[in-house]
Write a structure and sequence with these properties.
With 392 residues, this protein is an alpha+beta fold. It folds into 3 domains: 122 residues, Aminopeptidase, CATH 3.40.630; 148 residues, Gcn5-related N-acetyltransferase (GNAT) (Aminopeptidase); 93 residues, SCP2 sterol-binding domain (Nonspecific Lipid-transfer Protein, Chain A, 2-Layer Sandwich). 28% of the residues lie in helices and 35% in strands. It contains 11 helices and 18 strands. Strands 1, 2, 3, 4, 5, 6, 7, 8, 9, 10, 11, 12 and 13 form a 13-stranded mixed β-sheet that branches. A hairpin with an 8-residue loop joins strand 14 and strand 15. Helix 1 packs across helix 2. The longest helix has 16 residues. The chain starts with a strand and ends in a 12-residue tail after the last helix. Bound molecules: coenzyme A. Coenzyme A (COA) binds next to strand 4, helix 3 and helix 4.
């Protein structure tokens, strides 16, 4: 017999407690840690899947934004997807994700993003790879930059607001960067008795050109500085960033930071000593085809049309032919057209983000297009390779 699931917004304390217990086991949290996690992201953002009377699992929605072509597109992040061990393998996670996607559509959210522990589950709900999350590491001895053109000012990171404006300027220019939820900001500046957090503004206090936020750690390879967040807006700020970190070399062996797959910070280093420690891909779902395409920005110099034919098994409204007309950096979507590029809703995700070129996606079997459509899409979705500095 097929199990029956009920999807709901959490209403009572008992459900929250049960979901907390499930997620603590799922994600190896310490007892009580789920409460901090829930409160940071907001109890109103919890969703639960019940099987009969029991809480089978749940997830957390994180309403925020994401930058695409210098425009902010409303985006809901999905975190903490977890199903109790005794309920796994019966379709609970997939049912929950399908309900979530439908809820987001009903709310008018154009796109959704998540970090997959397994792609198989999320592909079934219409998500596909969207961009990169990479951790880089460099030996402090090899940085070698001595010139420090700007002052560096220590700040007590009690409030994340002082970093917002600087971060936003950098985020706007990097496809895939978040317009962060408050809970994500709070996580970046968290400190406790085991972990102190240090923050510095780069440049003068009245006109900073960047900042760094970090903690210091000791592991089997030695001591390291872990950059929780950074922004550098000018050449002088990048030089200062490196020389400041190089000055830790008497005690700190490594610096780790989050950067793009091809990280431009490393271009200032004398040798190729920076290495990628880890690389993950986050997944994106186009929830509403028209909204997603109209809310993002495009290269301002092109004026071109793309004729799409989209198939979405979950959201009927996304099915059919659409014309995307791009001019003056904006896109307009109308129904109809010649359907010159045929693709499943999943194939539209890496096209939209520019993670792969239309040719690469065609080769991978993610779309089927005429030569004209491939050329148009190549111009429309060209841009900085998508990445983000946040894991959620
Ligand atoms: C991952 C998890 C949520 C899956 O829950 P579930 O209810 O067992 O998943 P479903 O039964 O709905 O499975 C849906 C699809 O995903 C696949 N799937 C589920 N878990 C998988 C895994 N670990 N690896 C690969 N595929 C997996 C299923 O096989 C199924 O696809 P199929 O129908 O083609 O076989 C659950 O194992 C869990 O809570 N794990 C611990 C926490 C975690 O890793 N969460 C994910 C964070 S992104």
């Amino acid at each position: 017999m097929m199990p029956t699931f009920k999807y709901s917004q959490v209403v009572n304390q008992e459900d929250i407690q049960q979901l907390g217990n499930i997620l603590e086991q799922c994600f190896l949290m310490s007892p009580g840690e789920s409460e901090i996690f829930f409160n940071r992201l907001g109890l109103e953002n919890l969703r639960i899947i019940h099987q009969g009377e029991q809480v089978a699992g749940g997830l957390v929605m994180i309403p925020m934004g994401q930058w695409w072509g210098t425009h902010r597109v409303p985006m809901t992040g999905i975190a903490g997807v977890g199903i109790a061990a005794e309920h796994r393998g019966s379709g609970a996670a997939l049912a929950m994700m399908q309900h979530t996607v439908k809820e987001l559509y009903a709310k008018g959210v154009p796109i959704s993003v998540l970090y997959p522990a397994t792609q198989r589950l999320y592909r079934k709900a219409g998500y596909e790879q969207g961009g990169a999350f990479c951790i880089w590491e460099v030996d402090t001895q090899s940085i070698q930059l001595r010139e420090q053109p700007l002052p560096v000012i220590p700040v007590v990171p009690n409030h994340h607001e002082i970093f917002h404006d600087l971060y936003q300027q950098q985020a706007k220019l990097n496809n895939g960067h978040l317009d962060r939820h408050q809970g994500i900001w709070k996580y970046l500046i968290r400190s406790d008795e085991k972990e102190a957090v240090y923050a510095y503004l780069i440049g003068c206090a009245d006109q900073p050109q960047g900042y760094i936020i970090f903690s210091q750690h000791q592991n089997q390879d030695g001591s390291l500085i872990l950059l929780r967040d950074w922004t550098v807006l000018t050449t002088a700020a990048v030089q200062t960033f490196w020389s400041f970190l190089a000055n830790y070399r008497s005690q700190i062996k490594y610096v780790q930071w989050k950067g793009s797959a091809i990280d431009s910070l490393t271009l200032l280093l004398p040798e190729q000593t920076a290495k990628q420690k880890s690389a993950k891909r986050w997944m994106l779902r186009i929830i509403d085809v028209s909204q997603a395409l109209e809310k993002r920005g495009y290269p301002p110099e092109i004026e071109i049309e793309l004729h799409l034919e989209v198939q979405d098994d979950l959201l009927a409204e996304n099915n059919g032919r659409f014309i995307l007309s791009v001019a003056n950096g904006r896109g307009e979507v109308t129904s109809g057209g010649k359907g010159e590029m045929k693709l499943d809703i999943r194939g539209l995700a890496p096209l939209y983000t520019g993670l792969f070129t239309p040719q690469q996606l065609q080769l991978a079997g993610k779309l089927d297009a005429t030569e004209t459509a491939l050329l148009a899409a190549t111009q429309i979705f060209a841009g900085v390779s998508p990445w983000m500095a946040d894991f959620f």
